[in-house]
Amino acid sequence: MTAPLDDFYAVIPAGGIGSRLWPLSRADAPKFLHDLTGSGHSLLRDTWDRLLPLAGPERIAVVTGRAHRAAVEEHLPDLADMNVFLESEPRESSAAIGLAAAILHRRNPDVIIGSFAADHVIRGERVFEWAVQQAVAVARAGYICTIGITPTEPSVGFGYIKRADDELAVEGAPEAALVERFVEKPDLATAKQYLEERTYLWNAGMFISRADVLLEELRRTKPALHAGLIELAEAWDDKELRGPAVDRIWPRLEKIAIDYSVAEPAADAGRLAVIPGHFDWDDVGDFASLAKLQNRGRPSDLAIIGAEARVLADASSGIVVSQTKRVISLIGVRDIVVVDTPDALLVTTSEHAQRVKGVVDALKLTGRGDVL
Predict the structure, then answer these.
(1) DSSP strand E in 212-331: where?
(2) Average pLDDT for residues 187-216, to the nearest whole number?
(3) Contact call for residues 61 and 85 (beta carbons, < 8 A)
(4) Domain layout of the chain by residue ranges
(5) Is 21:287 a contact under the CB 8 Å cutoff?
(6) What integer is the mean pLDDT of 91-104?
(7) Most exposed: 10, 92, 126, 290, by fewest CB within 10 Å?
């Protein structure tokens, strides 16, 4: 068994609705609260269980929206009340992770934090733990560290991390390297080139750093955001001051992903390192990836999700997600995506699964928030 790391605090940002998984994922039932792997637990609970050996139950924090507090605490009964950090509204990952860093740094100036999304799927826990242990060693040396996933295919759905040629000499982290640059999602030809070069890793959005180092990077790049987070942290552990401070400060914090506010500037300055993750990882970003996850090794099969699903299929492949008792019959369709809920029906293909977000955007514009 892995022993918890004394100076390490795991942070789980649990926000967003997972719009590419609509209508399964909704504002009141976002992706991280669903069991998409057949484990019997939500993705959030799976994330908690994965981090437990590294941090212990008293040193795992969750950043989530006020509307999701009850559900999060139901899924994570051992989550300490003092480690629930509530957002009044979504403000992107810089604010969420920065808030956790500021609060935890105020409680313990020497703390190392690691941020791990609530809705990713990881297989190979021991390999994952080894990657995090290396990343913590790198963080102790004063770097911000990310864990990049070793690509298994030329994916166009992920951003990439380019490793520098020279390895980083840090005791306890034999695989550490500096990051040369981040790359946005490429086209297929470029993704194939990255796979062949073997110096590119998928960006999985995992960041490990001393809290003071991360906050200093935020102070350099986004001083107004940093100042707001520090002010919030100063009020956080006083229950009388916290609510008014959140209501006053949180809505005016800049919306920006931590990749742009911290990771990319740190990489440019030679302060960002990466550990290659050799474990299976998927962000379950759309129904195509969910179908691939469910049909692992059996691409010609039809995955069916739903305790009471009633599906008749003949020579068909893809995925059916059913939350009704309606009979769904498929004949001779390949790579189909059918999501049947009581108030909305989605039919598409794996090829067009990324375009589901456009449906969500259209529903917002037309005022159909009742199905979101």
Answers:
(1) 272-277, 280-282, 302-305, 310-314, 318-322, 327-331
(2) 94
(3) yes
(4) 8-282, 287-371
(5) yes
(6) 96
(7) 126
